[in-house]
Amino acid sequence: MVTTAAPPSPPTEPIAVLSSSPPWRQTFVSLGVRNYRLFASANLIAMSAVWMQRIAQDWLALELTGSTAAVGAMSALQFGPMLLFGLLGGLIVDRYRTRTLLVITQSLSFLTSAVLAVVVLLGVAQIWHVFAAALVLGFVTVVDNPARQVFTGQLVGPRLLPNAISLNSSGFQLGGIIGPAASAVLLVSVGAGWSFAINALACASTVVALTRLRSSEMHPVPRAPRRRGQLIEGLRYAAAKPAILWTIVIMGVLAVFSQNLPVLLAGFADHVFGTGAGGYGAFNTLVAVGALTGAILSTRRRTVRLRTVVLCALGYAAAQSLTALLPTETAFGAGLVVTGLGWLLFITCANTLVQMSSNAAIRGRVMALYVLVLLGGQALGGPIMGQVVENVGARAGMLLSGAVPVVVIGVIGLVLARRSRSPRGRIAGG
Question: Where do transmembrane segments lie in this chain (predicted)?
Fold first, then answer.
C-alpha cells in the first residue's frame, strides 16, 4: 500500500514587531475593511444580546433553584460539549466554508433562544428548560467559536489581524457593558423572557449580515482535504510550538480557576452585598468596563511575546484575588474594573500569539484547541467554584480563584525564564 505525504502547510504568518506603538488614528484601522465593518457591527449587536441572555440565564437558574451550584452546573452543560468535541469542531472549520458554518450555527442559536423565550414568557419555565438550552448552545459553540476566530483573518488578512482581534474583544466587552445593564433592567421590570427574545433577534440579524458579505473581497484560505490523523496532526502541531503550547496551558489554568465570574458574582450579589439581580448585572458591567479599556489599550501593543502572556496572566490573577478582599461594595466594584482590564490584556495577547503562530491550513484545529481549553476549563471549574461558594463563601472562592493561578503561572514563568537563559531557547520568540 502506497502512502502519500501530506501537502505542506502554508507558512506561519509573521508576528508583527513594531519599533513604536501605532498612532491613535490607527486604533480602528480594521473597520476600513467593508466586510469586517459589517460583520463587526452585527457582532456588537449579537454580543450585547448574548450578554443579556447570559445574565438572564444565570439569574433564572438561581431563581428557580435557590442554589449557586445550579449556575455552576449550567456552565458545565454549556461548556462541556467543547471539552468533549472541540477538536472535531476545529476540523470541521478547516474543511468547510466558514461563512456557511456561521450561518448554520447562528440559525440554531436563534431557534434555541426563541424557544426559551416562549417558555419563560408563558410562565412555564422549569430548570430543565434552562439546562437544555445551555446544552444545545454548548454544542453550537463547538463549531461557532473556532469559526469566528478563523473568520476574522479571512475578512481582514494577516496584516490587520492583530488589530481586528483587539477590536473583536472591544466589541465583546462593549456588549458586556450594554448587555448586563439592559438585562438587569429587564430582570427587575419584566423578567428574563425578553432577554432571550432579544438574543433570538440578534442571531437573526447576524445571519443577514453574513449573507451581505462580498466574497470577492475576502482572503481565501486552503481547505483541509480529508485524510486520516488530522485531529492528532493539530495536537502535535500545537505541542511542537512553545508559543502555542504554553499560552494554551496558562489559559487553561486561568479558565479552570479564574474564569467563573458568573458563579462568584452571583454569590457576592446574593450573599455578600445583598444587591439582587440589579447588583449582579452591575457587577458584570463593571468587569466589562475594565475589559473594554483593556481591549482598546491592546491595540497599542507593539509586539506579541510569550513573556507578555505570562506577565498579563499573573497581573490578572493577582487582581482577581485581591478584589475578593475588598470590604465595601464600591471598592469591590473598582476591583472588578481592574480585574476586567487585566483579563482582556491577557486574552487579546494570547489570542493574537496563537493565531499568528499558526499555519492558515491548520488554524481551525489550533483555535479549536484554544477554545476547547478556554471553555472546557470553565466547564470543569464552574461546578468546582459553585461548590466552593456554596460551602465556604463567595470571598473565599474568589480569593482561591486568583491565588492558585498566581502560584502555578509563577512557576511556569520561572521555568520559561530559566530555559530562555539556556543556549537552547528563548522566551521572546515563543
Answer: 68-93, 165-188, 234-257, 277-297, 309-326, 332-354, 366-386, 398-417
**77, 376 contact by CB (below 8 A):** no
Distance, CA of 350 to CA of 333 (rounded, Å) = 26
Alpha-carbon distance 408 to 313, whole Å?
11
Domain extent, residue 273, equals: 30-219+230-420
Domains of the chain: total: 1
Interval 248-295: pLDDT, tens: 999 999 998 988 887 888 888 888 888 887 788 788 888 878 887 887
The answer, as to whether pTM is greater than 0.90, is: no
369 belongs to a structural domain: yes
Identify which of 373, 370, 375, 363 has the alpha carbon closest to the alpha carbon of residue 98.
Answer: 363
**Residue 313: inside a domain, yes or no?**
yes
- Identify the CATH number of the domain in which residue 303 sits: 1.20.1250.20
Q: Distance between CA 85 and CA 342 in Å, rounded?
A: 29
Q: Is residue 12 part of a domain?
A: no
